[in-house]
Design brief:
Chain lengths: 170, 409
């Protein structure tokens, strides 16, 4: 761990009881879902982490508790440091609080979480799907969502498969 | 397939002003097929006459599920997907992904490969900025810019074809190095470009920088403050034009960027013209880096000798049983990566191109997330276009330099 990062990690651990994981100089702090807005506010206001670089999630299906990790990758421009905050979320009605009041960039990123993972964002100002069209069923980046493939057509079954192919017909 | 619901005003009710509901202001679609949106981007505009009251971007028309597809491929095979991401910055995307993989499995990269990566990524930056300059000139009515810029870009794409066999979808940078050494013609091609291009940049500047019509369209348009930019996660030249000195090449050097002498242009105005000037200056800085890297291009291998992750050269396969086994294992099964996650980022022409990679112990990634700069850079557009004319919206969009393949993934 970077020496400059140690006091920051200690501050977060002292306040939120966060657990720490390290891998190749990267620091991952685990906080509880209800603490995330506070933790992000503390990191932004007291520790100069002014940029939310990435906000995403990982699906650990079939593991149910926690099924998802929501990941907040923070960057401090003033101190040239990075820290990752992770929030474990259960698979049964997953939800996190919105971070839009801390970082505006969370707005679209959280819509992506909602769209791709079906994680409910509490208090989001604009909870619509962002990449998939409105009315899509399912959440594509969940591990139980099939990848899908195109059925190969041969001369003997061309018409039969053509009937159920999902493209626009004349 | 799900049935698409009809789009109605009800969906956007919380995003438009009350005047739109009474019909006082007009709602107008700009795009998805519109030349100045640089791809398939739909902007729902609320207009009061010519003035933009609200702007609601609607993205996803180019969504191809790259992240999902990458989860189903081995680490090496997933790399081809990154070319299709930001199609103006294919070398950069390859580098961002490859660096994440290298960090995850811990592979070393020989110095010659590092220098080649720097040369190609900087050439790619110039090519990407050329497309930006050409198309944004076109948006503002400077038709000839488009033709000049694409002429020079073609020179760079020829260099890419020389080294990788492909003009755009290169996949040249591979885990542990690059695909193969550059051919002998490479040096001359790059030197020729270095000789001609500085004069071309001067030409562009005579055409645009002091052009009164151009200045009228650009100065004091689309002001983006430092605080808004940071809160919205804006990075790259757009952030540097707002007065934040943040460039990952300087702040967290990768591929040996610390060896090269270059400046990071920073301006404080934060308007469309400042964003233009920052990118024009980046042309010259990138040229400096390419020249230095060419002058001290070391000799030696271009791929790591770590056979567990990097395939052996073709010549060894016929004579060494071990090499044959390695080759077979790498291209059928792939290499396993530890059960851990990595976030690694590079400075792309548009900003922080980050790759979040999580392995599950097997040869395929558990999760790949591509943090694309255009996504956040576009999210700030609704804030900065408010109160401007529709024609200014075109200039602002052009100055942010969005690539829809980058946004929708």
């Amino acid at each position: 761990m970077d020496k400059k990062l140690e006091p920051i990690v200690k501050a977060v651990q002292a306040k939120f009881g966060a657990t720490l994981e390290e891998f190749r100089d990267e620091v991952h702090l685990f906080v509880k879902p209800e603490q995330i807005v506070e933790a992000l506010t503390l990191l932004r206001d007291e520790q100069n982490f002014e940029l939310l670089s990435a906000l995403t999630a990982v699906d650990y299906y079939p593991q149910e508790t926690p099924r998802f990790h929501v990941i907040y990758q923070l960057t401090s421009i003033a101190k040239n440091l990075s820290v990752q905050v992770r929030v474990p979320v259960n698979g049964n009605s997953p939800k996190v609080q919105t971070a839009t009041r801390v970082f505006e960039s969370a707005n679209w990123r959280e819509r992506e979480l909602l769209d791709m993972f079906g994680i409910e964002i509490e208090g989001h100002p604009d909870p619509r799907r962002i990449l998939m069209p409105e009315g899509t069923e399912g959440h594509p980046l969940r591990k139980d969502f099939p990848l899908g493939y195109e059925e190969p057509q041969f001369t003997f079954n061309f018409d039969e498969i053509d009937l159920r192919k999902p493209y626009a017909k004349e | 397939m799900a049935q698409l619901e009809e789009v109605s005003i009800e969906q956007f009710k919380h995003l438009v002003s009350e005047r739109a509901l009474t019909g006082e202001t007009m709602l107008l679609n700009m795009g998805p097929q519109h030349p100045s949106t640089h791809g398939v981007l739909r902007l729902l505009l609320e207009l009061d006459g010519e003035i933009v009251v609200n702007c609601i971007p609607d993205i996803g028309y180019l969504h191809t599920g790259i992240e999902k597809n990458m989860e189903a491929k081995t680490y090496q095979k997933a790399e081809v997907m990154t070319d299709r991401l930001d199609y103006m910055n294919t070398m950069g995307n390859n580098l961002a992904y490859v660096m994440a993989v290298e960090k995850l499995v811990d592979v070393d990269v020989p110095p010659r490969a590092q220098a080649l990566r720097v040369i190609l990524v900087e050439l790619q930056r110039i090519a990407s900025h050329l497309v930006w300059l050409g198309t944004s000139g076109l948006d503002l009515g400077a038709m000839s810019m488009f033709l000049y810029c694409f002429r020079e870009r073609e020179q760079i794409l020829d260099i890419f074809e020389l080294v990788s066999g492909q003009r755009m979808m290169t996949t040249y940078i591979r885990p542990g190095g690059v695909w193969r050494d550059v051919p002998v013609e490479f040096e001359k091609a790059v030197r020729d470009f270095l000789k001609t291009f500085p004069k071309r940049v001067d030409e562009y500047e005579t055409l645009l920088t002091k052009n009164p019509l151009f200045i009228d369209r650009m100065v004091a348009i689309g002001h983006l403050s430092k605080e808004t930019a940071l809160s919205y996660g804006v990075t790259g030249p757009t952030l540097r034009a707002s007065g934040v000195d943040w460039d990952l090449r300087k702040a967290r050097p990768y591929c040996g960027y610390e060896q090269y002498d270059f400046n990071v242009p920073v301006l404080h105005e934060g308007d469309t013209y400042a964003r233009y000037l920052v990118r024009i200056q980046e042309f010259r800085e990138s040229l400096k880096i390419v020249e230095q890297a060419m002058n001290r291009l070391p000799l030696g291998p271009v791929r790591s000798e770590n056979r567990k992750f990097v395939p052996p050269p073709r010549s060894e396969i016929g004579v060494s049983m071990e090499s044959l086994i390695h080759h077979f294992k790498l291209w059928t099964e792939g290499f396993p990566a530890p059960k851990a996650s990595i976030y690694s980022a590079i400075e792309s022409p548009r900003g922080e191109q980050g790759v979040f990679l999580e392995g599950d112990g097997g040869p395929k990634p558990l999760r790949v997330h591509l943090r694309t700069p255009s996504f956040d850079n576009l999210a700030v557009v609704p804030q900065i276009v408010k109160g401007h004319l529709v024609a200014d919206l075109v200039a602002i969009l052009a100055s942010i330099d969005i690539v829809l393949g980058d946004i929708d993934r």
